[in-house]
Specification:
By secondary structure, this protein is an alpha+beta fold. Helices cover 33% and strands 9% of the residues. The longest helix has 23 residues, at 257-279. It is elongated.
């Protein structure tokens, strides 16, 4: 089960705009599939030799490659053959991640020296990229990834590669702008890591003080309290950023278990606040946690 933890309240910010999909890489059905020979090296020249576009022609190097459409588009550009043959994506890009905030240890593939956890994390990124590319219920606008749940509810979050997290939709662009401004003022070669206040928040379409959807057993139709925002905290499960993000996306698409977990979390928070108010009607003492 995907995990949800209590987070501080956060303003949901702006709603996502028009949807977009990755990079315009569309493989025509009539295109002849190019079979890959065992142990054949797939490099930039291989794509052109086998009737595909060079990945470098599909990537806009003059834009912010940390934005999800551009970032996941890098994976799509290097997996055109897998898209055409409807196979799992397994081809790691050659060098483009040097231009992103992805951690350095993942940039260049060296299967003889790479540690198992590095290889596993690359596989998680490939799986996440393929899932976002193929799923019609997922769209992208700027830093925001939007998801249509199967029961009609909508979810959205900002993709924050630099912080290895996601956050309330419409908040990361401003946060990144502040970080860039701090970098210039302090030292152009040193970036100060600023706390991202909206970390792991996912926006939802039910709004503040939401009522649990009717189709949820035991909780359907019940209204929450102490939920003033149109977002809640979803951490996902997994050992890496891409695997936890993938689990969070599945939770949103499922549009079921997420409401059970969130309602029970909201109910637990309300009970806690009521207990504190009963025990300390004049206010909780400063040394509460040490009593």
């Amino acid at each position: 089960m995907d995990s949800i933890v209590e987070c501080d309240s956060a303003d949901p910010g702006s709603t996502p705009g028009a949807p977009a999909k990755l990079g315009g890489i569309i493989m025509k059905e009539e295109k002849e599939n190019k079979k890959i020979k065992n142990n054949e090296e797939i490099n930039l020249q291989w794509f052109e030799n086998n009737g595909y576009k060079s990945p470098e022609d599909l990537i806009n190097y003059d834009t912010d490659l940390d934005k999800p459409e551009e970032f996941f588009g890098i994976f799509a550009a290097y997996n055109q053959h897998n898209i055409a043959e409807k196979k799992p994506w397994d081809n790691w890009p050659e060098w483009e991640f040097c231009l992103t905030s992805m951690k350095d240890s993942l940039h260049f593939e060296d299967l003889e020296k790479d540690k198992p956890q590095v290889i596993a994390e690359r596989e998680h990124w490939l799986a996440l990229a393929q899932m976002i590319y193929e799923n019609e219920d997922i769209s992208i606008d700027d830093y925001t990834i939007s998801i249509n749940g199967r029961n009609g509810n909508k979810f959205a979050f900002d993709f924050c590669l630099e912080n290895n997290c996601w956050g309330t939709p419409g908040t990361f662009a401003e946060h990144k702008s502040r970080m860039e401004s701090s970098k210039v003022k302090l030292n152009p070669n040193v970036r100060k890591r600023e706390l991202y206040a909206f970390e792991h928040q996912i926006g939802h379409s039910l709004g503040p003080w939401w009522t649990c959807p009717e189709y949820i057993p035991n909780h359907g139709g019940k209204r929450t309290i102490h939920t003033p925002d149109s977002s809640f905290c979803v951490t996902g499960i997994g050992d890496t950023f891409p695997s936890t993000m993938l689990s969070a996306i599945h939770l949103c698409i499922d549009d079921f278990q997420i409401w059970i977990i969130q309602y029970e979390e909201a109910e637990s928070t309300a009970e806690y606040i009521q207990r504190i108010e009963r025990e300390y009607p004049s206010g909780r003492p400063e040394d509460y946690y040490y009593m």
